[in-house]
């Protein structure tokens, strides 16, 4: 699999497709898994926010990231506002360099996503510790690595419905 950006023109992205991807990400987060197996799963909502902020910044921005953070807080029954804060900050960081990020190939983007997802996890750890929780351990920072490894696959999958099919 080549890590280059696609060279062909793509069809416009529909808002309902963006909404559907977020619904699927929330549903994936809600799937009950055995205790301990979630330690390595990436934050799919956060990963999707980064994808859309980088590729469709006019449709998905900091406000949508904040709303999805509130949805993630409610769905995970976590500390209210921690996901919203983390997603908003990482969306802001991604949007501040969005024009550069779209010019990167998928390997370079994956490295940036690794840093942004690590920042996301770090913000959530700091918020939890400020509210009196104990440090969760270093394994908490494994999901950003998995998310960065999945970034090229996610990008390729998200582009499938929008490729021009020439017969």
Automatic annotation (TrEMBL):
Keyword Transmembrane helix set for record: yes
UniProt organism field: Chromobacterium amazonense
Chief subcellular location: membrane
NCBIfam families: shape_MreD (TIGR03426)
Transmembrane parts of this sequence: 60-80, 101-123, 135-154
Membrane topology label: Multi-pass membrane protein
Similarity section: Belongs to the MreD family.
InterPro entries (UniProt xref): Cell_shape_determining_MreD (IPR007227), MreD_proteobac (IPR026034)
Name by which UniProt lists this protein: Rod shape-determining protein MreD
Keywords: Cell membrane, Cell shape, Membrane, Transmembrane, Transmembrane helix
Location(s), subcellular: Cell membrane
């Amino acid at each position: 699999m080549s890590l280059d950006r696609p060279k062909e023109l793509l069809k416009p992205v529909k808002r309902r497709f963006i909404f559907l991807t977020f619904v699927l990400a929330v549903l994936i987060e809600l799937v009950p898994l055995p205790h301990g197996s979630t330690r390595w799963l990436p934050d799919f909502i956060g990963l999707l926010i980064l994808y859309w902020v980088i590729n469709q910044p006019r449709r998905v921005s900091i406000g949508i990231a904040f709303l999805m953070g509130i949805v993630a807080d409610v769905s995970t029954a976590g500390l209210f506002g921690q996901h919203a804060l983390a997603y908003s900050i990482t969306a802001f960081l991604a949007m501040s360099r969005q024009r550069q990020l779209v010019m990167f190939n998928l390997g370079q983007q994956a490295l940036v996503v690794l840093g942004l997802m690590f920042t996301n996890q770090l913000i959530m750890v700091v918020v939890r510790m400020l509210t009196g929780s104990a440090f969760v351990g270093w394994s908490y920072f494994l999901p950003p690595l998995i998310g960065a490894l999945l970034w090229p696959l996610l990008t390729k999958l998200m582009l499938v419905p929008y490729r021009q099919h020439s017969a």
